[in-house]
Design brief:
three-stranded antiparallel sheet, 58 residues, binds zinc ion, 5 strands
Length: 58
């Protein structure tokens, strides 16, 4: 199962979709598809089982 969430790049402020799976829980590093700068993505689970993500500058 995957969840799609929309996140805003902390560098270029473009909104993008991330597809998350339970395997992604925790922290992962990913590059912005628009400006190619690095993100630290923090993935957490909501009480209803869906996933959410917050993005920080790496
Ligand atoms: Zn960006």
């Amino acid at each position: 199962m995957t969840d799609s969430v929309q996140v805003q790049c902390p560098w270029c402020h473009e909104w993008q979709w991330l597809w998350l799976a339970v395997d992604d829980l925790g922290e992962m590093v990913q590059d912005c598809e628009v400006c190619c700068r690095p993100w630290v993505v923090l993935v957490a689970q909501n009480p209803d089982g869906t996933l959410r993500a917050s993005v920080q500058r790496s």
